[in-house]
Amino acid sequence: MPTVTLIRGDGIGPEVSDATTRVVDALGVGIDWEVHEAGASVLEQHGTPLPEHVLESIRRNGTALKGPVSTPVGTGFRSVNVTLRQELDLFASVRPCRLFPGVPSHFEAIDLVVVRENTEDLYEGIEFEMGSAEVSKLRGYLKYMHGYELREDAGVSVKPISVSATQAIVEFAFEYARRERRRKVTLGHKANIMKFSDGVWLETGLRLAESYRNVGFEDMHVDELAMWLAWIPAELDVIVLPNLYGDIISDLCAGLIGGLGFAPGMNLGKEYAVFEPTHGSAPDIAGKGLANPIAMILSAVLMLRHLGEAAAAGVLERAVEGVLGRKDIRTSDMSGVGESTPTGAVADALIDAINASA
Ligand code: NAI
User: Fold this and answer.
1) Which atom of ligand 1 is nearest to the CA of 291?
2) Is-above-0.85 flag for pTM?
3) Which domains are delineated in the chain?
4) Which residues line ligand 1 (CB under 6 A)?
């Protein structure tokens, strides 16, 4: 019986997590959920939004399923999501974006995978606050050493991109494409402008592509990539990106498949795996039964495959296909819905579909 750490999250997190665990339990795989809290609710008690015992639980179990956790803006509260990825070295974020029949979209068919570097880039947290003594020192240094004029009213975030981290993620993308029999890997960058950060990314990617000649490959400026995605997304297949572009482009891809409520995700490292939807805690709809649980349920499909439960994953995926194809089950984020189906009722419909297929 596999044990999985469950972080229900906040906002809509508990609603979509409860729907997901009910549906997964109906598959009869017998997952033992080890439930832990993270985020603002535990900050006061533990002095941190991500207590050590939560990390220990994931290290012990190897696998976690996580609902969204809010990151309050400007409070000094370190993002639980970014911390988790860094502490567990979850260097690869994988976000498959497939359009399910019945889900309203501007396109007929979408099947893309965004592979995002998860540990460095502008997310590394190396920042200099506007007006601080540090930024003033930095300004002096840049002027003295390089003749750069940094404006006095500027704040600065540093963008490190290393050969080692790039190598790990691009290799991961190629291996993933090969294993999943995908057509090609597109490496997005802006190396014409950021020669020493995206330049490292591009050069390392090009070098690695030499050893994966059996997988299609191209590199593309990230702005052009965004244009193709909005225009003819079928041009793309597996897209590998540095952290920030990956964040933005994966939300764009979620928009192609009906929105964030349909976009699952997983964060993978060499030792641990954390499965979570792409969306956040959606405080605007929390507690109203309006949250679409499909993104988290599809994250559980990815988790089941990772745990070697391919048959159960298949049953669940087919149940999702069946339920989304019905005219009477409409999640609140499906455009043009009249009366939407509450979160729990979507789970009930999936459980019925699972039981009917047994
Ligand atoms: P969000 O993804 O929570 O919401 C964006 C929009 O999508 C909102 O209109 C929301 O109602 C809608 N939406 C999102 N998920 C939905 C679902 N399952 N069903 C129906 N509608 C859905 O993004 P936002 O507002 O930028 O972030 C809110 C909070 O979530 C912030 O504190 C942020 O830091 C956190 N966050 C956490 C993430 C995580 O835990 N992995 C990821 C992204 C954001």
Assistant:
1) 19
2) yes
3) 1-92+263-358 (3.40.718.10), 106-118+160-256 (3.40.50), 121-158 (no CATH)
4) 12, 16, 68-71, 81, 260-261, 276, 279-285, 291-292, 295, 332-333
